[in-house]
Amino acid sequence: MSVVARTGRLVIRTFGEADAGDVLAVLGSEETIGAMRAQPQMRGRDEARRWIEHRQERLETTGYTLWAVALADGPVIGDCGFVSEDAGRYDIRWVIAAERQGQGYATEAAHAVVEYGFERLGARAVVAAIRPENTASIGVARRIGMQPAPPTADEHGPLLRFSLRR
């Protein structure tokens, strides 16, 4: 597994096959993904393995992906990374297990991934699209320095947009 960044409490790294159980625990939890209507709840270990394989393939083909957010001394507690790129604008996403939310992990991970985007990928901007009811993620976006951008919508409803440029 390749380490993307280390913070005081976290390791941001690629996912490995051994992470399937942790991935299922995070993305299989309705409480964790409830505010992300666009992402279906994960249903089993085989689905978690396929999800990890897709993250690995995405990294190989694009140079970015969703990376594992792991406690420095423990398990994977979420993911954070880029889900798309367009003309140097990288779209960031983060998910932290419900039982770990409210402890600053998402902010810590997102800050590290934003720095990676600007310094290693040459991003011109990092953007985020967040459901209006997902107040925790709106707070994360603001804490990492993102500014509001014009809202948008997808097939699941309205999205607030945030952007950070350097």
Describe this structure in words.
- The protein has 166 residues and is of the alpha+beta class.
- It is 33% helix and 34% strand.
- The chain has five helices and eight strands, in the order ββαααβββαβαββ.
- It has helices at residues 20-27, 30-33, 45-62, 105-119, 135-143; strands spanning 3-6, 10-13, 66-71, 76-86, 89-96, 125-130, 147-154, 157-165.
- It has an eight-stranded mixed beta sheet, sandwiched between helices.
- Helix 1 (20-27) packs across helix 3 (45-62).
- The longest helix has 18 residues, at 45-62.
- The mean pLDDT is 93.
What labels describe this entry?
166 residues; alpha+beta; eight-stranded mixed sheet; globular
Count of DSSP helices? 5
Tell me the distance between the termini: 29 Å
Annotation, overall tally of beta strands: 8
Q: What is the ordering of alpha helices and beta strands?
A: EEHHHEEEHEHEE
Q: Which percent range fits the helix content?
A: 25-40%
Question: Biggest sheet, strands in spatial order?
Answer: 1-2-3-4-5-6-8-7
The major sheet is characterized as: 8 strands, mixed
Give the amount of beta strand, in percent: 25-35%
Briefly characterize the structure.
The chain is an alpha+beta fold and 166 residues long.
Chart the SSEs and their pairings.
Blueprint: E1 3-6, E2 10-13, H1 20-27, H2 30-33, H3 45-62, E3 66-71, E4 76-86, E5 89-96, H4 105-119, E6 125-130, H5 135-143, E7 147-154, E8 157-165
Parallel strand pairs: 5-6
Antiparallel strand pairs: 1-2, 2-3, 3-4, 4-5, 6-8, 7-8
